[in-house]
Amino acid sequence: MFKSLLINKVENHYAALLAEVAESELPEGDVTVDVDYSSINYKDALAITGRGPIVRHFPMVPGIDFAGTVSASAHPDYQAGDKVLLTGWGVGEKQWGGLAEKARVNGDWLTPIPAGVSSKHVMAIGTAGFTAMLCVDALLNHGVKPEDGPILVTGASGGVGSIAAMILSSMGYPVTASTGRPEEASWLYKTVGVNDIINRSELSNPGKPLQKERWAAAIDTVGSHTLCNACAGVRYGGIVAACGMAQGMELMGNVAPFILRGITLKGIDSVMFAKEKRAGIWLKALHHLPLAKLESISAVYPLREAINVAEKLLNGEIRGRAVIQCR
C-alpha cells in the first residue's frame, strides 16, 4: 500500500482525497518510480478542485510532474536506482500522475536527472519552470537581446511567470512584471529581479488593436485580453510566447500587430514537447536556476496538504512554486 491523492467522481459528485492505494492498482507501464517530490501547477489545481475539465477518467491520481527513484523497470534505458523526472505526456490527466508515493509510467516519458542534481531541485523547477524555459528559449531563438528593451512577463507572481522573470533577469534582460498582487512588489523586485511592475488591470480589459510600443518581447501566462494587449504593445518585429490561460482561453484580437509590426505569436506547449529535446531544456533551466535561488521563490508542503495548496493557488494565495514532498 502507498499514499496517494485520488480524484473520483460518483454520480456527478467530484472529490479529491488522500487515500491508501494497493500497488496492484497502478496502471500499466514499464517503469515504477518511488516518488520523492511532485508539485502543484495551475493545471493540477484545476484538476484537484474540479474547477476545470482536466480529468475525464476516474479514479485519477493527479500530478502532471514528479521526480524520484526507479524501483522496478522493464525499459532498456532505466534500471532500479536511477534518478528520473517526468513532466507532461498527459500524466495526471489521462494517466495516473505524481501526487503519490509511487507512480508507474511508460519509460519513454521519463528524463534522467543529471548527476549531482536532487529530486527536490528538479521539482522546484517542475512543469512551470520547464515551460518558462521553453518560453525564454523561444525569445532567444527569435534573436531578442537585452539591449532591445524590456520583456513583459504576465502572471509574474505565479509559477511560470516568476521563473520566466527570474531566468530573464539572470541573463541581463530588463523585465516588466504584470501582476494582480501589488503586495508582492518587494518580492518581485528583490527576489525575482524584475525592473518594473504594472498592475494586471492595464492589460486585462479590451484595448486598442495597436498600442504604444513598450516591450521588445513578452511571455504571457494568462491568455484572453491580456495576450491581445501584450501583442498590441510589443515593438516592431518582436515576439510573444504564449503558454497559459489563467484569464481565459479566448483570443479576441486583431491582425494589426502582425501585419503592421511584423510580430510573432509563438505557442508554447510543454506536454508533448519532443523527448529528444527535453534534456537540453532541463540543462538550461538548471544552469539558470540553482537550488539556492529557487528556494527563494518556492515552498515545500507535505502530500497531505496538497488539496489545500491547490485551493490556495487558484485563490491567488500562493506565490512562486508549490513543491509537494511525497515521501
TrEMBL record:
Gene3D superfamilies linked to this entry: Medium-chain alcohol dehydrogenases, catalytic domain (3.90.180.10), NAD(P)-binding Rossmann-like Domain (3.40.50.720)
Transmembrane regions: none
InterPro entries: Acrylyl-CoA_reductase_AcuI (IPR014188), ADH-like_C (IPR013149), ADH-like_N (IPR013154), ER (IPR020843), GroES-like_sf (IPR011032), NAD(P)-bd_dom_sf (IPR036291), Zn-ADH-like_protein (IPR051397)
Domain of life: Bacteria
Location of the Enoyl reductase (ER) domain: 16-324
NCBIfam families noted in UniProt: oxido_YhdH (TIGR02823)
Identification of the protein by name: Acrylyl-CoA reductase (NADPH)
Organism (species): Raoultella ornithinolytica (Klebsiella ornithinolytica)
Organismal lineage: Bacteria, Pseudomonadati, Pseudomonadota, Gammaproteobacteria, Enterobacterales
